[in-house]
Every structure is written in C-alpha cells, then in structure tokens.
User: What shape does this take?
Amino acid sequence: MAKPKISRTLDKKVLTKNAPFNMPEPNDDLAAFGWPLAKLRYPSRDSTKTDIWPGKPVFEVEEAKELAEQYGFDIEFVNAKFVQVMLDNSPAVREAAEQCAAAKYSQESLENLRGVIVKEFRDAVVPEMTKRFKKISAMVAQFYAARIAHLLTFGPEPD
Assistant: This one.
C-alpha cells in the first residue's frame, strides 16, 4: 500500500461573507487570532502577502542592542492585554464603535472612535495603571535599593 501524500497547506476556502470594514495589511488577519490587541503590528518595509513576519508589534519598544540582550527583545511600552480589557469594559468605546458601524465606517466615524479611545485611555486606563503602580511602588523602590547595594558591594556581574 502506498503512503498517503501529506499536504502542508490548507485548502483555500471561499469566503461567503466579508466584513463591511477590515484593517489594512498586515492587520487584516486579526480575526484569525481572536482579536488580541497585542497582535497589532506595523507593516514591514518589504512586506508581501506571503510574509511570515509582516511587521513589528506596535507595542514593542526599540532598545539599544545591549539592553535587548540583557532584558530580551519583547520589551513593550504598555501591556496590550491590560489596555484591551479596560477598553472592552468601556461603555463609551462600545457606543462609539457601534456608531462607527452605523456610519458605515466612514473616516469621520473612525476619527470619532479614535477620539473616544484616546479619552478613555487618558481618563480610565492611565489612572488605573497609576493606582496599581502606586500600590507596588514601595516594592519597586526596595528593588532598586537592593540592586544598587548589590552592585556597590559586589561590583558588576561578570558576563
């Protein structure tokens, strides 16, 4: 009996419905990931439809090579999952998103939605981040005090 041929590609499915609005590449496939904000990314300069790496995540921070080697390459300026949870729970964002849909995703309605998101980030997300950080700030202070004490006592760690 002959070995069955193994297919490494999925069969192409014809979409029966298209969403009335979709993000431009490389974010046009976010639905496939379940809409995590952390997957939002910039297009790469030489991006093509068949790219495995379509671009760098928008929440990533560019750091000097030495810092990336010390802390890793996944440094983010804000945690996308935290922001998404906060914005998902916002009635104002939900209402503005529904208005955007009702306006057939016009440029004006997208700008309005953007304004609501910026306001909600400023008025709800940042204060929540600040409140949570204040709770742990004493521990962060202890961390830096212990770190400098260790460095002053033992010197820098050998590579």
User: Anything to note?
Assistant: Residues 24-77 form one domain. The two ends are 58 Å apart (CA to CA).
